[in-house]
Amino acid sequence: MFTRVNIKAAAVTLCQQKLKSGKAAAVVVNAGCANAYTGEQGLADAQKVTEMAAKGLGISASEMLIASTGVTGKLLPMDKMRLD
């Protein structure tokens, strides 16, 4: 289920694109930064996070979704987004 508003956060846009295939294997979730209203950089960052998480799980990045919640208008803190 997704928002019906026209302005969507990067996570929503990316998940809608990925779910066109009809399947997903996992979701990576972050809290504290919604990554909303962040434009192309926000979308690129969301994609990178799904790629990193998918690699860690050994699955295709096309099947990895992302959910973000928190402050809007700020980019994901990519220096803290890593698998350890």
Structure summary:
With 84 residues, the protein is α+β, with helices and mostly antiparallel strands. Helix content is 33%, strand content 19%.
Question: What structural keywords apply?
Answer:
about 80 residues; alpha+beta; two-stranded parallel sheet; globular
Given helix and strand content, the structural type is alpha+beta
- Report the strand count: 2
Low-confidence stretches: none
Give me the side-by-side strand order of the main sheet: 1-2
H/E topology pattern: HEHE
Main beta sheet: 2 strands, parallel
How many angstroms separate the termini?
Answer: 30 Å
- Number of DSSP helical runs: 2
Query: Which band does the percent of strand residues land in?
Result: 15-25%
Structure, explained:
With 84 residues, the protein is α+β, with helices and mostly antiparallel strands. It has one domain (10-71). It contains 2 helices and 2 strands; from the N terminus they run H-E-H-E. The chain has helices spanning 10-18, 39-57; strands at residues 26-33, 64-71. It has a two-stranded parallel ribbon. Strand 1, helix 2 and strand 2 form a beta-alpha-beta unit. Helix 1 (10-18) packs across helix 2. The longest helix has 19 residues, at 39-57. The protein is globular. The chain starts with 9 loop residues before the first helix and ends in a 13-residue tail after the last strand. The mean pLDDT is 93.
